[in-house]
Write a structure and sequence with these properties.
single chain, about 400 residues, alpha/beta, Lyase, Ornithine Decarboxylase, Chain A, domain 1, TIM Barrel, eight-stranded parallel beta barrel, 12 helices, 20 strands, about 25% strand
């Protein structure tokens, strides 16, 4: 994605052409970027040859999941809906891991019937529920136990999952108790130690700390886990500083860990694979002059892209066509929803915009569409996959009549 002669391109297609043909707001993904991200991840972790299970919650589009499946990745799911989507996309059950703190009886039964690789349990009561259902079907179920390592990932509090005050996983003491229990069970097959400390992590130190904690707890269990599921959380750059997680450093830390612990590693990346593959194209509805700043009112809103309202997340905003004419006023980009949190960011220096001009909101591939809603009874936008000079609709624009 780059500018060519002042026009923003997604692969070989102008963003302005896409907006004209498919309308706005519009999600666009680059297949080339997706393929490169997966290749880069595999290359950085080839020393440890992990099972890579894409985090479906980051983007559940069936067509994108099919492309991810073609690259040899499995799926990490957290609901029966995500599990169904992964299977529909052709991902094999043996490459699917089911995570999450609140799996229902129906979800557990479905996962057992589909014979997925692992159900990662997060509480004693969940273990008992899985065992009860396995007994009912006279089968033995592969399970993992998720440890809460009490590790601060140094990320947003809203997406931290590895501290003791978070709802995820069990304490080290309870982990040891559950290991002893599952080892004796006739219907549970203990396969995995699972952990996930958060999202949008840009520093390898929290991962290094996590691995040291895992090493200690494994020694206490005196059990050889077939799998160690390290979760995901690998961050991307959302701004111009280009800061990213040092994947090679993280990979080397895992390699050292594996010298003591002979297990197969599972990774559950989402954002690092899909995040920077997507943009959201939006049109200026009104330019509203304020006392200290101008409001650029867009046809995209917080229902289309929730991250800025939910996490105060920052996404770069760029013009679809550069005109080299700048304003001295602050521009605040906002949507039409009746909430003050319906905004995408402020800029002190941005090119002059008029009604019907197009802007690009960058790096929306992860937790863009997956967090979208029909708030204010707004239809969800279309999704387009770009392959060089070809644009394919991978999710139709929702029609208003469908939600009325």
């Amino acid at each position: 994605m780059k500018y060519v002669n002042k026009n923003f391109f997604v692969e070989d297609i102008k963003a302005s052409y896409l907006a004209e043909k498919f309308g706005t707001p519009l999600y666009c993904y680059s297949l080339n970027k997706l393929t490169n991200n997966i290749r880069n991840l595999k290359n950085n972790f080839k020393k440890i040859d992990p099972i890579i299970c894409f985090s479906v919650k980051s983007n559940p589009n069936t067509n994108l999941l099919r492309e991810i499946n073609k690259q040899g990745l499995g799926a990490d799911v957290v609901s029966i809906g995500e599990l169904m989507k992964a299977l529909k996309a052709g991902i094999k059950p043996k490459n699917i891991v089911f995570s999450g703190v609140g799996k229902t009886k129906v979800e557990i039964e479905y996962a057992i019937k589909k014979k997925i690789l692992l159900i990662n349990a997060e509480s004693k009561n969940e273990i008992l529920q899985i065992e009860k259902i396995a007994r009912k079907y006279k089968t033995k179920v592969n399970v993992g136990i998720r440890l809460n390592p009490n590790t601060d990932a140094k990320t947003l509090s809203q997406i931290s999952t590895g501290k003791k005050e978070n709802k995820f996983g069990v304490s080290d003491k309870e982990f040891l108790t559950l290991v002893r229990y599952v080892k004796k069970s006739k219907n549970l097959n203990l396969k995995c130690l699972s952990v996930h400390i958060g999202s949008q992590i840009l520093d390898s130190k929290p991962y290094e700390k996590m691995l040291k904690i895992l090493d200690k707890i494994i020694k206490k269990t005196k059990f050889n886990f077939e799998y160690i599921d390290l979760g995901g959380g690998m961050g991307i750059s959302y701004n111009n500083d280009k800061k990213t997680l040092n994947l090679d450093k993280y990979s080397n830390s895992i390699k050292k860990f594996l010298k003591k612990n002979k297990s197969k590693i599972i990774l559950e990346p989402g954002r690092s694979i899909i995040g920077n593959t997507g943009i959201l194209i939006s049109k200026v509805i009104y330019n509203k002059e304020g006392h200290k700043k101008n409001f650029i009112i867009l046809d995209a809103a917080m229902n289309d892209l929730m991250r800025p309202a939910l996490y105060n997340a920052k996404h770069q905003i760029k013009p679809a066509i550069k005109n080299n004419s700048y304003t001295n006023k602050v521009y605040e980009f906002v949507g039409p929803i009746c909430e003050s949190t319906d905004k995408f960011g402020s800029y002190k220096k941005f090119q002059k915009l008029k009604e019907n001009d197009l802007i690009i909101i960058c790096d929306v591939g992860a937790y863009g569409v997956s967090l979208s809603s029909n708030y204010n009874l707004r239809p969800k936008p279309a999704e387009i996959l770009i392959k060089k000079s070809k644009a394919s609709v991978i999710s139709k624009r929702q029609k208003l009549i469908e939600i009325i």
